[in-house]
Amino acid sequence: MQITFCCAATDAEPWLNELRAALPGATVSLWQSGAPAADYAIVWQPPQVFFDEQPQLKAAFNIGAGVDALLRLNIAPTTQLIRLDDAGMGAQMAEYVCHALIRHYRDFDADDTDQHAGIWQQREVLPRSEMPVGIMGLGVLGQRVAKAVAQFDFPVNGWSRTAKVVPGVRCFSGADCFHDFLAASRVLVSVLPATPATRDLINRDTLQRLQPGGYLINVARGSQLVEEDLLALMESGHMAGAALDVFRTEPLPKDHPFWMHPKIHITPHSAALTIRSESIAQIASKLAALHSGKPVAGLVDRQRGY
Asked: What is the pLDDT of residue 10?
């Protein structure tokens, strides 16, 4: 079994060493232009020339959760695209969302301000029933986030393209129920994939349908948010703020208004980072299944975009 590794902005040596240890029967090599044909590939943001030179690939494993960068490339239809199911990202994403949610709900920013001013002041805590949380996207990661939020006794709504059943979550599905989902939520969390259908989905109309004092947590993709609309609705008072991990332009430009906005918390696309050991264990298991003709989870539907 010949495996080639092509991952931009990644220190390849640790990956190669651990892949070789996990796959002793395979030949694992770092891709360079002109390299011999391989059976399988492990990739992250590869260039078009990679797939131009490797049209015979049986499958390409994407080491991140999002596959939007892959789907912009011209890839042979015979090459299966496989994404990681979780590989440690679900727990990180759940931590991030719960931290952002509780920071907003308990108004810990005001406590920080009071500390620096030397003010001792307690604040009333709203009933959790007044802070319903809506999770857009109920895949593996979205369900992990929804279950974590529910553990803190917040009402949890979930919306997905197709119907899902998640214990402890009030589930909505399809375009017909989208507005009902928004109206039932005060905090909006996006865990949706980047597809043509989700581009600009978080816009003025969407955010205005949230309950007054709405809050946005975006751990999905920056292309989903119309940034100017969020700024305008915070100015009007309808939106109380946002915690944003992803942006339309990354890195976020130094002159972007989000940097210094008092109601916005930003992080550098770090809500859920790939954990190498867990990713390699999952890839090794899926490779063994593929090589023996067994089905695997995580196959990308190129029409749907995830």
From this structure: 83
Domains 2-87+275-291 and 89-266 share a fold: yes
Q: Please state, in angstroms and rounded to a whole number, the distance separating the CA atoms of residues 269 and 112.
A: 24
Q: Supply the pTM of this predicted model.
A: 0.91
Q: Residue 251: is the preceding peptide bond cis (ω within 30°)?
A: yes
Structural domain boundaries in the chain: 2-87+275-291, 89-266
Taking the chain (306 residues) in runs of 10, the rounded mean pLDDT of each run is 91 95 96 96 96 98 89 96 89 97 97 97 96 97 97 98 96 98 98 95 98 98 98 98 98 97 97 93 92 90 90
Tokens of 164: 């899902």
- Cα–Cα distance between 149 and 153 in angstroms, integer? 7
Cβ–Cβ under 8 Å, residues 143 and 197? no
CATH of domain 89-266: 3.40.50.720
Encoded tokens for 55: 């049209």
Give me the active site residues, please.
Answer: 221, 269
Can you tell me whether residue 153 is helix, strand or coil?
A: coil
Compute φ and ψ for 190, nearest 5 degrees: -105, 125
Sole residue written with tokens 């264990």 = 281
Q: pLDDT value at position 286?
A: 93
**Fold designation for 2-87+275-291:** Rossmann fold (3.40.50)
Torsion of CA 133, 248, 235, 233, to 10 degrees: -50
Which of 236, 172, 229 is CA-nearest to residue 202? 229
Can you give the three-state secondary structure of 192-210, one letter per residue?
CCCCCCCCCCECHHHHHCC
Say whether 79 sits in a helix, a strand or coil: coil
